[in-house]
Amino acid sequence: MRPTADMAGGDDQKRLVDGEFLFTFGDFRAIASMLHGDAGIALTESKATLVYSRLAKRLRLLGLESFRDYCALVASEAGGDERVRMLAALTTNVTRFFREPHHFEHLKTQILPPLIEKARAGGRIRLWSAACSSGQEPYSMALTLLSLMPDAARYDVRILASDIDPNMVAEGAAGIYNAAALAPVPAAMRDRWFIPIAGRGGEKTWGACADLQSLIAFRELNLIGDWPMKGRFHAIFCRNVVIYFNDDTQAKVWSRFAPLLEPGGALYIGHSERVSGPALAELQPAGITTYRKKAGGRHD
Question: What is the pTM of this model?
Fold first, then answer.
């Protein structure tokens, strides 16, 4: 499938992508508008084939004949559940354990050591994986913490793991991964913090142990929606997410993170992302795609 020459015509009723279902430029604009309004994601016409291929599966399952019918469904009050499924189908959930390892090394060597001392004396540690996908990122954060503080579950130490996709939140909360997913985790660490469980078809599978799971709270959260948390964090991971937002939305998200960081706290972002806008008054570069909250910065 490929975008057709009709794309340039700007006619809402002309076919946009060759395929089984009629998919017009008007359909694409309606879907793009809903995705931007719901999740802040900016879809360009270059993504037309991707949108078609991912949503055509939903049309077949629902027995619909065209994208026009699908757009009508997800725009209706009765189509709320399907709108959530549409969002899940169109968001990217590429993740792995210890992805971009320099961030976890920075967390381990620069952020956690003084916090662990305070936690043992009655203080708190709060970390946030702001787009946790299926859980590999927050579990990597927890494993990094446990490498320094094996008894962390006994103290006031918590990691918030949030994502807009309820399916990903459920996968993360389950904490079950196959051998391929756990390959980046050192064997000794895997054997200490994961329990072998029976997988489908004899596949090697592990589940996060109770002490590991107890450190992480998985929650559904939209980064452009309301944020219910009131306390501040010592580190926030938000990586390879805002790249899908337009410039204004990116700047707004960075500005919302900044006051939620403790002074000296770290913000870790994706390899092709950069903090922009008013947040730069509070955050300063501290390494590769790493920022620290300036001492004395606003933290109300």
Answer: 0.82
